Queue: 2 jobs
Job 1
Amino acid sequence: MAELKLSDMKDLTRIERIGAHSHIRGLGLDSCLEPRQASEGMVGQISARKGAGVIVKMVQEGKIAGRAVLLAGQPGTGKTAIAMGMAKSIGEETPFACLAGSELFSLEMSKTEALMQAFRKAIGVRIKEENEVIEGEVVEVQIDRPAVSGAASKTGKLTLKTTEMETVYDLGAKMIEGLGKEKVQSGDVIGIDKASGKITKLGRSFTRSREYDAVGAQTKFVQCPDGELQKRKEIVHCVTLHEIDVINSRTQGFLALFTGDTGEIRAEVREQIDTKVAEWREEGKAEIVPGVLFIDEVHMLDIECFSFLNRALENEMSPILVVATNRGITTIRGTNYKSPHGIPIDFLDRLLIISTQPYTEEDIRKILDIRCQEEDVEMSEEARILLTKIGVDTSLRYAINLITASALACQKRKGKIVELEDITRVYELFYDVKRSTQYLMEYQSQYMFNEVQIGDGDGDADASNDAMVS
Ligand SMILES: Nc1ncnc2c1ncn2[C@@H]1O[C@H](COP(=O)(O)OP(=O)(O)OP(=O)(O)O)[C@@H](O)[C@H]1O
Ligand SMILES: [Mg+2]
């Protein structure tokens, strides 16, 4: 059951709009973990990408628990992008949980509970189950409809074969419904789970491939199964500890998984689950897959969260923790002390630090090119050169934002390719940080609340208040 819900969730998140990082498809490393100059949407930032690659390798081997990595660098140097690249290259089965530091303070639960849930979202459990299945090629489906509708439920017969045997099964109403839903016809290869009665279509038999020339491109052809019709099959479900928690906490129910409205989960529930999972591990039924927990904007955490993290990392099931920040030496939230990145020294000491560097002009140009492709915007050579220059002078983010805006300007004048004029037009229309600050300096007196001068305290506001009124 749990596995079903997992696949539904993945589908939901796949409907994505073009976001800030949708062009990132991985870390762009070759098989020796050497970064390619530009690959999988990633450009430059070679040493940070290489470091991230080593961490991904460490996670995939799954032997080490409780390591933590810090991505530190100036704003817009690709820290979040690298974390997204790690998420993409880590593989489907390994959980990757994402969280922004400030989220901990806005949820309707305590900070440590939110952190605990995040940790458990990043720990996967691979559960192995042996199921009895019937697998074979459908020879015939025969359904007897009752003469008077509604008089009796439908009955029928299903003939299945393998290369060695053929058996006729009697069908009940539920199975008939299942066959109808899957549109099973003769020539299909199907599997029936004996316990649940669930029918899955595995494909069409090769022997029938010539009979129908009008099959869709998505039709999969498979061999007719051999051996016995009834088999024992090993099925592997991958769920996270958090999902098991939610499903088993009776007050919430599994629907909470979709709404995210899980509330606090009681400690006893977690303890029971940990004991159960430990039992399964001993019996060889389950394996723990430590994943990655990524906390962006980690300087937003306060001293209590940091001490929780210190402890949580010492657990043997702990995932690899990746945190990112763009702060320099600043106050640790919840204290009056200053420290590098706003992270307490004892926690900082546990971190491997990967630093990101500002981009060169060449890198900026390549990133802008990739973004143009991603957003489906065609741009003339001169426009690109100007946009790159704007990117160098202001910031990469500002230049990326101008792509969409200039494409709209181009559309407005019914052009097909974004030209120099479109870029200059939106450059004049939208201010970057530098120009906006400059403007503020000049016209400061006309804005509200400027009456409180720096170093003026909150004392006599009257004098400067007229500036606001006039
Ligand atoms: N090496 C790169 N290759 C491709 N795109 C990149 C690269 N670095 C950054 N970008 C893109 O540039 C934009 C800004 O980068 P990102 O958001 O990762 O910065 P950041 O370091 O997280 O900044 P902040 O500290 O402000 O959060 C994003 O759209 C990102 O996808
Ligand atoms: Mg970021």
Note: The two ends are 68 Å apart (CA to CA).
Job 2
Amino acid sequence: MIISELTLVTDAGIDLKPPPYALNHKDTLEYHWGKHHKGYVNNLNKQIEGTELDGMSLENIILASYNKGDVLPAFNNAAQVWNHDLLWESMKPGGGGGGKPSGELLELINRDFGSFESLIHEFTLAATTQFGSGWAWLVYNDKKLVLGYHVGRQLIIVYSFCYLGFK
Ligand SMILES: [Fe+2]
């Protein structure tokens, strides 16, 4: 499968974003983009067409369909579209991403975790000690950097907005 031959735009409100770089590991990356990601976008668009969710941003669809924890059917597909968007933006071709941050972020890390190395240790522990699949994340909440994690399809966006909006 060649990425440029895939249809990027669907009929309903949410578009499949093109990957931000060439997918060089075709079997794995094209599977996640050309099948998973595209499938979630298409399924979400079928679910929201003609509903009050149609026309909303992806983030607002997630928040509306999360429905304060009593999730609506569109939530899982919307969550997976958002997860895959985040996945593509979180990687860099050739393994050249990552590295020690600088400036204000490094100052905050040093203040709230003691050191960058300590953050990496705690982050790795949070990410690798979950059962099954899940997420670990670094968030800025209440003027402090903190680690968060959750198993499965839950999203940081839900918790972030909950922390900010429904506390
Ligand atoms: Fe995937």
Note: The first helix runs from residue 26 to 48.
